[in-house]
Design brief:
Keywords: Membrane, Transmembrane, Transmembrane helix. This is DUF8151 domain-containing protein. InterPro entries: DUF8151. Pfam families: DUF8151. By secondary structure, the chain is mainly alpha-helical. The chain has a domain at about 20-80. It is about 90% helix and about 0% strand. The protein has two helices and no strands. Helix 1 (about 5-40) runs antiparallel to helix 2 (about 45-80). The N and C termini lie close together (about 5 Å).
């Protein structure tokens, strides 16, 4: 039996949140990495190195959110829609 839109709404909302979260973290991580490189270029090596580590951590969390949460939820929604 094909699920109705109302039954899929929570899954679609969760998919939207994970997708936007992963995209937002990716943009934030890229901005932090750019800031880190500019800081290093201007001579503040210690603060720039710290910002590189923070940017890498944010990018890693974006990757984890995309692969551990978004992708499996996308497969679940696709399989639910294909059952009809």
């Amino acid at each position: 039996m094909r699920p109705s839109f109302a039954e899929l709404l929570p899954d679609l909302f969760e998919l939207l949140v994970f997708g936007l979260g992963s995209a937002g973290l990716s943009v934030a991580g890229a901005y932090i990495e750019r800031f880190a490189l500019l800081t290093i270029e201007h001579g503040d090596l210690g603060f720039g190195a710290w910002a590189v580590v923070m940017g890498a951590a944010v990018l890693y969390f974006a990757y984890l959110l995309g692969t551990d949460k978004f992708h499996p939820k996308l497969r679940d929604v696709q399989s639910a829609l294909a059952q009809g």
